[in-house]
């Protein structure tokens, strides 16, 4: 027997069951009493609903996730880009506050991990730039490790010159593209 | 020695084929190349002619840098058969050889009979019965979809007859296109060497790099960042089947196929700095070839398969080195310029093609391996990824032209240059296929 035959069988069987139920209550008085009882119950419920009070919630005034981070780790935690000089992978001292903030966060949250993406500008060949991007990523990784972050929390990926943030072909575009990015 | 026609910027491949994304713009030519006439092929059918053979053949021959095709308006006549030729008129114009032919519909619909002849003008002008001016003559039945390829085949035959060297016009290029308007911006595409007949073979949300052809022209090795890290894959172009080669921590890069097709040379930084390895495709066995504390990258095989050319910073700035697979000994090859990168040996083993930096400009250069003399071939600033035609006649590379990254061709002697700008997005990392037939 397939499914459609079963459902056809049920279509016939269900009304038969309903008829059977009706025929069992033959007492007309009992039927009228039940009806009255049901009407009274409905009226009582309606009155109760009209008298009842209603409650709702409001949004709590809370700091955003970023504000909470800033409170604990200074606004430097929101900065995620470290720029580099041409063909160099030395981290300028001006990025110390940014990297220190991220290092502190990672030390406090050992369950969190970070990817350091190394990038290069368009000068030189793509293959050399993959190597240069990795050197920049590793410079950042080493800094974080020196600040106490576990090496297991850090992954370094070099994208070389393949993912520029500025698509221009001038020096200011290149300066923007020579970078490491911290990605959680 | 040669006069450059820089101002002469001609659009040759203004094809009606809307699917073609790349078109060639000649930026530089010379008038010292060998004069040749490619006469428009005569169409013997009704309606529009199915393919402009002479235009394709003339463009092919010109791009090699070795020939200077005569423009049609300068031709004394446009014959299509060697029987009705007045050789003296062509001799006066200094034309060395004539290519001509006829196209007629075959009895089978969608097929054409193409005949062509290659004539030696000097022999024809001498007019002695024992010397036949017809250097080659062929007749073939071609289907519509193969007409363009057959035009390149004619170019190959003409080129080989006149130079003694095999033609490379019936070849393809693989390259990476970046279309930032697409959901999958990074695309690996293949086209004929002249940018026509483009086909997509892979698209990704993350970068694709370094395509390299297998020696049989059937597969590509490349780097994909689809898993948000670099991995080396091989893809069969006929079956679309992909196989993961390496996925070590850190860099998996720059795969290049060995001449015998059994191994890849590649770059891994799993043990510290980027180092050159060979990787056996079947057994997956790795062999490390370099070992030092600086960057070693961009491996390419010498044509004999016995050593590997690579870039290294071991002497300070990057220069090109060669390491023997048998002894593991490395020697430095380049000394000129601020720095040199991306070296490949020409198929004859005589020259090294590379990217050379002079005064901050990255240009394509050729170094004679015997004399050590380095000649820059280009005058642009951002050239990279040179790839040599399998007959060693031309180099395709990536450059920035009119503010956009695109491909360009330069003949090995630097005489002829042409840009192949991308109509849509940017194009980079070209790889010239081996001979495909």
Return the CATH architecture of the largest domain in chain A: 2-Layer Sandwich
CATH topology tier name of the largest domain in chain A: 60s Ribosomal Protein L30, Chain: A
Structural class of chain B: mainly beta
Number of helices of chain B: 4
CATH superfamily of the largest domain in chain A: OmpA-like domain
Number of distinct beta strands of chain A: 4
The biggest beta sheet of chain B is recorded as: 6 strands, mixed
Compute the average pLDDT of chain B: 91
In short:
Chain A contains six helices and four strands. Chain A has 184 residues and is an alpha+beta fold.
Description:
- The complex is a heterodimer of chains A (184) and B (437).
- Chain A has six helices and four strands.
- The relative contact order of chain A is 0.12.
- The model of chain A is unreliable at 9-25 (pLDDT under 50).
- Chain A folds into two domains: 33-78; 80-183, 2-Layer Sandwich (60s Ribosomal Protein L30, Chain: A).
- Chain A is elongated and about 100 Å long.
- In chain A, helix 4 packs across helix 5 (126-146).
- With 184 residues, chain A is an alpha+beta fold.
- A four-stranded mixed β-sheet of chain A has the order 1-4-2-3.
- Chain A has helices spanning 3-24, 28-51, 65-73, 96-108, 126-146, 171-177; strands at 81-83, 114-119, 154-160, 179-183.
- Chain B has 437 residues and is mainly beta.
- In chain B, 9% of the residues lie in helices and 43% in strands.
- Chain B is built from four helices and 31 strands.
- Chain B has helices at 53-63, 87-92, 121-126, 147-163; strands at residues 25-28, 34-38, 42-43, 67-69, 97-105, 111-120, 134-143, 172-178, 186-192, 199-204, 208-213, 219-224, 231-236, 242-246, 252-257, 263-268, 275-280, 286-288, 296-301, 307-312, 319-324, 330-332, 339-345, 351-358, 361-368, 374-376, 384-388, 394-401, 404-411, 417-420, 426-432.
- In chain B, strands 2, 3, 4, 5, 6 and 7 form a six-stranded mixed β-sheet that branches. A five-stranded antiparallel β-sheet of chain B has the order 1-30-29-28-27, with no helix packed on it.
- The two termini of chain B are 37 Å apart.
- The model of chain B is unreliable at 1-21 (pLDDT under 50).
- The A-B interface holds A 115, 122-128, 130-132, 134-135, 155-160, 162-163, 169 and B 207, 209-210, 225, 228-230, 250-251, 253-254, 267, 269, 273-274, 295, 297-298, 311, 318, 341-342, 355, 357, 362, 382, 384-385, 400, 403, 405, 428-429.
């Amino acid at each position: 027997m397939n499914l459609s035959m079963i459902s056809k069988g049920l279509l016939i069987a269900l009304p038969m069951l309903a008829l059977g139920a009706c025929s069992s209550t033959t007492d007309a008085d009992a039927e009228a009493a039940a009806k009255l009882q049901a009407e009274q119950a409905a009226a009582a419920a309606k009155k109760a609903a009209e008298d009842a009070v209603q409650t709702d919630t409001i949004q709590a005034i809370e700091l955003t996730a970023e504000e909470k981070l800033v409170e604990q780790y200074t606004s430097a935690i929101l900065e995620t880009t470290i720029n580099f000089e041409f063909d160099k992978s030395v981290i300028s001292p001006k990025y110390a506050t940014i990297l220190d903030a991220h290092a502190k966060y990672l030390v406090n949250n050992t369950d969190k991990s970070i990817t350091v993406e190394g990038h290069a500008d368009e000068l030189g060949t793509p293959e050399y730039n993959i190597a240069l991007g990795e050197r920049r990523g590793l410079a950042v990784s080493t800094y974080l490790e020196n600040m106490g972050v576990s090496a297991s929390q850090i992954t370094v990926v070099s994208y070389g010159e393949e993912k520029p943030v500025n698509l221009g072909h001038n020096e200011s575009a290149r300066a923007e593209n020579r970078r490491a990015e911290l990605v959680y | 020695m040669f006069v450059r026609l820089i101002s002469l910027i001609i659009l040759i491949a203004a094809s009606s084929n809307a699917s073609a994304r790349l078109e060639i713009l000649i930026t530089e030519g010379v008038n010292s190349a060998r004069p040749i006439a490619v006469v428009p092929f005569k169409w013997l059918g009704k309606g529009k002619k199915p393919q402009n053979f002479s235009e394709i053949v003339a463009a092919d021959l010109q791009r090699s840098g070795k020939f200077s095709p005569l423009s049609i308006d300068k031709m004394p006549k446009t014959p299509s058969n060697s029987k009705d030729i007045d050789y003296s008129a062509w001799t006066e114009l200094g034309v060395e050889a004539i290519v001509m032919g006829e196209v007629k519909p075959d009895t089978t619909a969608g097929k054409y009979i193409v005949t062509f002849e290659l004539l030696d003008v000097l022999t024809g002008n001498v007019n002695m019965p024992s010397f036949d001016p017809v250097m080659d003559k062929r007749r073939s039945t071609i289907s519509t979809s193969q007409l363009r390829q057959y035009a390149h085949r004619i170019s190959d035959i003409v080129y080989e007859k006149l130079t003694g060297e095999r033609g490379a016009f019936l070849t393809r290029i693989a390259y990476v296109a970046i279309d930032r308007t697409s959901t999958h911006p990074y695309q690996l595409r293949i086209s004929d060497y002249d940018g026509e007949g483009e086909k997509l073979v892979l698209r990704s949300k993350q970068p694709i790099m370094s395509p390299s052809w297998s020696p049989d022209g059937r597969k590509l090795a490349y780097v994909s960042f689809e898993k948000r890290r670099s991995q080396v894959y091989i893809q069969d172009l006929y079956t679309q089947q992909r196989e993961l080669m390496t996925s070590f921590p850190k860099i998996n890069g720059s795969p290049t196929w060995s001449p015998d097709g059994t191994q890849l040379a590649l770059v891994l930084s799993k043990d510290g700095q980027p180092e050159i390895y060979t990787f056996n495709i079947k057994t997956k066995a790795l062999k490390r070839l370099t070992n030092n504390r600086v960057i070693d990258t961009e491996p390419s095989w010498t044509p004999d398969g016995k050593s590997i050319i690579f870039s290294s910073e071991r002497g300070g700035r990057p220069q090109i080195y060669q390491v023997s697979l048998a002894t593991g000994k490395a020697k430095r090859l380049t000394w000129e310029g601020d720095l040199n990168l991306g070296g490949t040996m020409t198929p004859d083993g005589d020259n090294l093609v590379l990217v050379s930096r002079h005064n901050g400009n990255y240009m394509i250069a050729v170094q004679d391996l015997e004399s050590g003399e380095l000649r820059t071939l280009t005058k642009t600033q951002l050239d990279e990824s040179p790839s040599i035609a399998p007959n060693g006649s031309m180099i395709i590379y990536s450059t920035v032209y009119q503010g956009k990254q695109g491909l360009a061709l330069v003949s090995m002697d630097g005489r002829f240059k042409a840009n192949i700008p991308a109509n849509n997005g940017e194009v980079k990392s070209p790889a010239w296929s081996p001979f495909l037939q």
